[in-house]
Design goal:
By secondary structure, the chain is of the alpha/beta class. About 40% of the residues lie in helices and about 15% in strands. The strands form 4 sheets. A 7-stranded mixed β-sheet has the order 2-10-9-8-5-3-4, sandwiched between helices. A hairpin with a 7-residue loop joins strand 13 and strand 14.
Length: about 375
């Protein structure tokens, strides 16, 4: 395939996913695959094994389940498949995506409670300790690693220590961090880690995945509240049938994802990608500050994934106009999601490099129509 034949994108996606992908990832989707064929299912098995490598764990203790749909489908598959009828889920929330886990549990009729820290603070380990000490009914604790509502990076290591102190099962929504921030599943004692193809691993949308402790997952048969999102059922089929999915899988997305994993390895792995994201975000925040656009969170709470900026206070400022000004210059950003303040968000993940950030900052300066 001549990559020159693949058209350039009209703009760079500066979002938390879907994101701008490489031409070689796009090119990988230009071939059709049969879901029953060993050539395709061997790719699925390779992906499952390589995801364990990215997580730094082995197949004796951990396993991988791929699930059709967006990342939220995989979150719902875990919540609905591992918390039993007599269990209780505690969700540590400080943004919209933690709250989404609560909403999922409510839809499924699961006993759930939120321990909310507010959008400008990390979850309190002391409050978590106190809650687990006084509520023995809780069986599972869930938290979002990178809460993309604000860009907050939550302390999953410290949370994991408290969760395991009380012998609870630990669910981490690593949707916007896995593959872009080093995570040691074994050290943190995560039982279920959930992420998606189209985030830091730089694939395209179509499926999510769960990395689970085998011993935990094996005990969940029959718990699932959904046929399509039965985590155990999907895992059992993949285990017994060489990577076969129960229902039609997103074959083009899967093939593109293997290419994305190749490119992660070529870049130098998660540590190297993390450094690129970190340097991009640092350059972005410093540049925005020089333009008079302040970040919503203090530096020590920010992730390298996405940053929320406070909207200008000028009366003539309008996000839609600002968005369109930037889009016309080749950049797409995200609207804000903070509940009580006007904000917008800019992501650093995907095929985004230092030159792109510098060009973005120039485009933002040129797009600040309220200062003309």
């Amino acid at each position: 395939m001549n990559f020159k034949d693949i058209p350039e994108n009209p703009y760079l996606l500066l979002t938390p996913g879907p994101l701008s992908t490489s031409k070689s990832v796009k090119a990988a989707m230009l071939k059709d695959w049969c879901t029953w064929d060993d050539d395709y299912n061997n790719i699925v098995q390779e992906i499952r094994a390589r995801l364990l490598e990215v997580a730094g764990v082995n197949e004796q203790k951990y396993t991988v389940v791929l699930m059709q749909g967006s990342g939220t489908f995989s979150i719902e598959s875990v919540v609905g498949s591992v918390v039993s009828q007599d269990g209780k889920l505690l969700v540590l929330t400080n943004g919209a995506y933690g709250e989404r886990i609560v909403t999922i549990a409510n839809y499924l009729g699961i006993n759930v409670e939120a321990l909310d820290a507010g959008e400008k603070a990390r979850p309190s380990l002391e409050a978590l300790d106190q809650k687990l000490a006084t509520d023995a009914i809780i069986t599972h604790v869930a938290v979002v690693h990178c809460e993309t509502t604000t860009g907050m990076l939550n302390p999953i290591n410290g949370i994991g220590k408290v969760v395991k102190k009380y012998g609870k099962e630990y669910i981490v929504d690593a949707m916007s961090s896995f593959g872009g921030i080093p995570i040691s599943m074994d050290e943190i004692q995560i039982d279920y880690l959930v992420s998606s193809a189209n985030k830091c691993l730089q694939g395209v949308p179509g499926f999510g995945f769960t990395i689970a402790k085998r011993a935990k997952l094996e005990k969940t048969k029959g718990i699932a509240r959904s046929l399509s999102l039965d985590l155990y059922g999907q895992w059992e089929t993949m285990e017994k049938n060489n990577g076969k999915w129960r229902f039609t899988s997103p074959t083009h997305t899967v093939r593109a994802f293997r290419q994305a994993l190749d490119e992660l390895e070529e870049e130098g792995g998660v540590d190297t990608r993390y450094l690129r994201y970190y340097e991009n975000q640092k350059l972005l925040v410093e540049g925005m500050d020089s333009l008079g656009l302040a970040a919503f969170l203090p530096r020590e709470l920010q992730s390298p994934i996405i940053t929320t900026f406070i909207s200008p206070e000028e009366d003539e400022y309008d996000f839609t106009r600002f968005y369109n000004e930037l889009k016309s210059r080749g950049f797409v950003i995200y609207p804000g999601k903070v509940t009580d303040m006007q904000c917008f968000r800019i992501g650093n993940i995907g095929e985004v490099y230092k030159d792109d950030v510098e060009a973005l900052l120039k485009a933002i300066e040129d797009s600040m129509y309220w200062k003309r």
